[in-house]
C-alpha cells in the first residue's frame, strides 16, 4: 500500500478537506499513474452531497483524470513508465457479460466499477482523481495522444466521451441537423465534436448570453429556448437533439423539434422524474433515448479523434484549495466551461 494526498468529502454535503488515502500495491496488470490534472464534473457534486444515493464516505471524487505512468506491473503490455494516460468514469467491469465482450463496458450487466464511490473486486472502496496518484488495471487506462495537452484532455474522459458516444451512435455527420441543448461542460464539447463530425449544429440555450461562445465553438445557429417563438420556428427541423442539461424540460415541446424518425437523446440526468405525452412520440415516429459514457475502445477512439481535430476542452485551471469555491461556481453556471484541478497543488 502507498499513502497519497487527496481532497475528500468526509460526509454528505460537507466541504472537501485535504487528507490522505491508501492506494493498493501495483499488481500484475496494474498501472500506477501520477495524476497531473483532474476535471470537475457536476456529478462529483451530486455524489458528494448525497443526492444520488449509495454514497461511500469519505469520498474522493474525480473521474476526469490525466497523468503520467510512474510504474507498471510485470504483466502490463500496453503502457510503459512515462506514457501520457487518462482514466475516465470506470476502472473495471465483469469483462464476461455480453456487453463487456462487445466493448460496451459502460453497460456491464453486472455493473462496472466506478472510479470513485464504488467497490472494487477486492471489496475495497474506490477513490478518484482529486488525489496525487491512482492505481488502475491497464485495461481501463487510456492513452492520451501527443496532440492534446493533459489539462485540456482531462475533461474529455467524461464530458468528451459522454457526448461523442451518442453523436456517433446516432450518426451525426454530413447532411444531419444536430441540436445541442445547453452550453455547459458537456454541451460545449458536444458542439465541438458534432461540428468536427460534419453535422449542421444548433445550440438551444435558455438565453442568448453565450451565443458568441457557441458560434466560436462551431455552432452554425444559436437560439433561445426562453423565447416561445423558437419552438414554432424550429418545429420538425432536427435529426438529433442531444440534451446535456440536468433540469426538467418540457419534453413534448422539444420532441416537436424533431423530424420524422428523429431522436432526443439525454445525457443530462435530472434529479426528479420527467413526464411526456406519448403522442409526441407516436406522431412522427420519434424516439426518446438516453446514453451513458462510452466503452474503453470508443473512449480511445474519441481521444484520437479529438487530437486529430484539435478538440481540447475549454478549461479554467484551479488550485486544489479552490475546489469548494469552484463547486459553488459550477452550481451557479459560472464556468466556461470546465474546471480542472492542478494536482501538483494537492
TrEMBL record:
The keyword Cell division does not apply. Transmembrane segments: none annotated. Keywords: Metal-binding, Oxidoreductase, Zinc. It catalyses: a primary alcohol + NADP(+) = an aldehyde + NADPH + H(+). It is an enzyme of class 1 (oxidoreductase). Its EC number is 1.1.1.2. CDD domains: CAD1. Its cofactor is Zn(2+). This is alcohol dehydrogenase (NADP(+)). Residues 13-341 form the Enoyl reductase (ER) domain. Belongs to the zinc-containing alcohol dehydrogenase family.
